[in-house]
Amino acid sequence: MALADQMNTATSIPDKDQIMSENDGRKSQVGTLSFLSRPLPFSPSVRNGLILFLVAAACAVFWHPFLTLYTLSQEQEHYSHIVLIPLVSLYVLYGNRTAILASREWSPVLGVVLIGSGGLGYGLSNAAGLGSDSLSMTMASFVVICWGIFLLGYGAELFRQGLFGLLFLLFMVPLPEVLLSATIQFLQRMSAEASDVIFGLLGVPVFREGFSFSLTNFSVHVAEECSGIRSFLSLIITVLVAGHFFLRSFWTKLGIVAFVIPLAIIKNAFRIVGLTLLANYVDPAYITNSVLHSSGGIPLFGLSLVVLFSLIWLLRRVEQRMGYGTQKTCITSEG
């Protein structure tokens, strides 16, 4: 029994070469970040006041685009999440508030470059005649300015530590028309394909022509409005946040995000098939005018969340069994 314990203890200790390799990697990364940052020439309280002033000034400059963005989020359902994005980003950064507020470094060169780039982008968005994509470029410019302000005040190392919260601000940016259209068309096409498969598995006689399905008493067309883009974006955002807080491995996080794509398509296909069957065999009003049509996606969205969080829980258990992160902690403590 003692021999087995000794063997388990020995196998849990990383070898010397691995420790040296990881320490060298960390030193190289720290050295690079130190080169990008400089010691703070004034007190953290002065710096924090300067950052608050710059953020307030940026918000004042972008006030009218903010109002346009809010109107867009109220008019188009697939952008209803936008108003929550800054709050989530602030919450993520708030978790590291002690290190952020006490930081003794800043990155004036990189910060000014990003702030200037964002300002230039804002100017070009007004002058380039981008049409419906003008707001996308404007909000992307605001996000870049926010990155620049953070880099300016807190340095490259803290920027790296807060990278998720800072990158998450990109969800404030409305998708460019080309990308939005391509995403909707992809979801529309795949939802129609999945619906066709489900009809076949159920043995329902149906004639399909493109995005149209004809049953014995009713025909339905899978329009762009039926693509499920709103729930797709909501699931992506939810999974990214959950993965950040509950998972450690980059590959498990990437895997759970990739899983959202087929899940959203299958969920939407079941909604299409269910409503079509009800309209064909019970009452056409289930599609033409019913609460189930307008709000029936909510229970399926909730079920999708149950599936996703169950999978995240399983992946977290797998990471714990594999000791993910334990070895790194052990090495650091020995460091």
Could you walk me through the main structural features you see in this protein, from its secondary elements to its overall organization?
The protein has 335 residues and is mainly alpha-helical. The protein folds into two domains: 142 residues, no CATH class; 157 residues, no CATH class. It has 16 helices and five strands. It has a three-stranded antiparallel β-sheet with strand order 3-4-5, with no helix packed on it. Strands 1-2 form a two-stranded antiparallel ribbon. Strand 3 and strand 4 form a beta hairpin. Helix 11 runs parallel beside helix 15. The protein is elongated. The two termini are 31 Å apart. 25% of the residues are buried. The N terminus and C terminus are likely disordered.
Give the topology, please:
Blueprint: H1 2-12, H2 16-36, E1 38-39, H3 44-61, H4 63-75, H5 85-94, H6 97-101, E2 105-106, H7 108-127, H8 134-161, H9 163-168, H10 177-202, E3 207-209, E4 212-214, E5 219-221, H11 229-246, H12 250-281, H13 285-288, H14 291-295, H15 297-321, H16 326-334
Antiparallel strand pairs: 1-2, 3-4, 4-5
Helix pairs in contact: 3-8, 7-8, 10-12, 11-12, 11-15, 12-15
H and E string: HHEHHHHEHHHHEEEHHHHHH
Helix/strand class: mainly alpha
Count of extended strands: 5
Low-pLDDT stretches are: 1-31, 326-335
Per DSSP, the total helix count is 16
Strand order of the largest sheet: 3-4-5
What composes the largest sheet? 3 strands, antiparallel
Strand coverage percent:
under 5%
The percentage helix is over 70%
Return Rg in Å. Answer: 25 Å
Number of domains: 2
Net shape:
elongated
Distance between the termini: 31 Å
Quaternary state of this entry equals single chain
Summed over residues and divided by their number, the pLDDT gives a mean of 83
